[in-house]
Amino acid sequence: MNTSHFRTIVRSLLILTIAISCRNETEKNKEPEIQGDAAEHIAEDSGAPLPTLPYLAVFDEQTEQLKAEKNADFDSSALNVDALTQALVANYPEIKPEINRISNDTLYLHIADARYLTQQMGSSGAQMYIMEATYAYTELPSIRVVDFTFEEGDHALPGSYTRDSFNQRLQ
After folding, report:
1. Which of 8, 81, 105, 119 is a Cys-bridge partner for 144, taking CB atoms 3.0 to 4.6 Å apart?
2. What is the pLDDT of residues 148-160, one digit of tens each?
């Protein structure tokens, strides 16, 4: 092997090493991608406040159960079916509730793709969603019952829920 050929190989390796090093350094200095709730980023971009729910499900350490607590950030002037549905989607973007109809004191809610709710959130997460949705819609003066229809899964059951449905589970 002659010296000229050897130098060419060494130069090529050196250039390749520098190029790879620069690429790695660029990756390290790259700003981290935004993580978190997509709805929050949309609200920030549009300048609109993130929709909130009237009640939030929280874990009570004394009873070791979920309970609904009034949300101090909720603006009751925006209390209507559409605003509540938007707030649910903002808080649970993987779940897309559709209001089928309202009849007497019952709101009929359908979730076409409930896999996230029934299979991926776990039992507590699914219970939190159903509790928050039930408390949200029953905050409307004419609604006392929320009837959920979706394909049953390991962590959530479809059916009619009232605020009392959750109180009974706690006893």
Report:
1. 105
2. 999 999 999 999 9
